[in-house]
Design goal:
Radius of gyration: 25 Å
Number of strands: 0
Helix content: over 70%
Structural class: mainly alpha
Number of helices: 15
Largest sheet: none
Distance between the termini: 90 Å
Length: 316
């Protein structure tokens, strides 16, 4: 397959981590990354100028999330990913399973709602449009697990095991659209599970864990299928450039191993985040109960004690 449309040199030297991390920007993702960091930073400054705080850990999560996208799309990892299945799989796993989690932990929607000004009466501004989108029927559909889980799974099997992948890899717009799709699918899958930003689908903590584990095993099965294959399964990577000095089947085995191993990383990250959120939620609930008890003199507890005393009196 000719990759000249991607501005690539087909005679890439054998892959090393140092060569893979050399700067080689995709213009779309470079501009998008810079714009995302600039808009996020501007929103944080707006909050702080009016005296509102914004957690530093959210800033760190969002910045690292954007940088993780730039790492796989604005370096030669993107070039090597066009001719090496294993490197492409690193790109796919990072941009669909790691970057979305980090971006969502940065709570960009919450930040936007707090930073955008409220429009005047009978007027519709950016904040109002964002709220309308969040509460729209469209968002209810695309964030519901009946939609997100099959989409998450289909992004693997329906893409790699059909001619669609080879078609998309045949052109720069196709490759770009595929990477944007991976990022978008990851965001809509993890958004309701993370539960940091407001959204139309907000399940409880146990249901979020079930949604997480409903999708993750399919990544492991996909990786195992690649590793067990007796021959190359994706046309694009059947004949890698001779300059790379790699065997396509061995490279596919590496790709499968990466897909299998990487599925554990987001599971651990999300579970840690959910347990922490659950703990903080329980703390807030306990504080509300304590404040209510202070206001009414522990009326509820006294009523319960009186009820127990009445039961004891009847028993005598």
């Amino acid at each position: 397959m000719d990759h000249s449309g991607h501005g690539m040199n087909m005679d890439l030297p054998p892959f090393t981590l140092g060569r893979g991390l050399e700067f080689s920007a995709d213009p779309f993702f470079l501009v998008g990354s810079v714009a995302a960091l600039a808009l996020y930073g501007y929103a944080v400054l707006r909050l702080r100028r009016r005296g509102d705080a914004w957690p530093v850990n959210r800033i760190v999560f969002f910045v690292v999330g954007v940088l993780s996208i730039a790492l796989v799309m604005c370096t030669k990892l993107n070039d090597y990913g066009m001719v090496m299945f294993s490197v492409h799989m690193v790109q796919h796993m990072v941009i669909s399973m790691l970057s979305p989690i980090l971006l969502l932990l940065g709570a960009p929607v919450t930040l936007a709602l707090r930073a955008l000004p409220v429009a005047g009466r009978d007027r519709t501004g950016p904040r109002e449009l964002l709220l309308m989108l969040l509460h729209s029927r469209y968002m209810k559909i695309v964030t519901h697990p009946v939609f997100t889980i099959p989409l998450f799974i289909a992004s693997l099997y329906a893409l790699y095991f059909t001619p669609l992948f080879d078609f998309l890899m045949g052109s720069k717009p196709g490759h770009l659209a595929m990477m944007v799709h991976f990022l978008g699918v990851g965001l809509v899958f993890f958004w309701p599970i993370m539960g940091v930003d407001p959204g139309p689908h907000r399940p409880g903590y146990l249901m979020r864990m079930l949604e997480l584990f409903a999708g993750m095993p399919f990544h492991a099965f996909f990786g195992i299928a690649l590793m067990m294959a007796s021959g190359p399964m994706v046309e694009t990577y059947k004949t890698p450039p001779a300059s790379l000095g790699i065997d396509p089947l061995s490279d596919q085995n590496w790709a499968g191993g990466i897909a299998w191993a990487f599925s554990e990383i987001p599971s651990v990250l999300v579970l840690i985040a959910l347990v922490f959120q659950w703990y903080r939620s329980e703390q807030r609930t306990a504080k509300r109960v304590d404040r209510a008890a202070d206001r009414d003199g522990d009326r509820e507890l006294n009523a319960y004690n009186a009820y127990l005393a009445s039961l004891q009196a009847r028993g005598q």
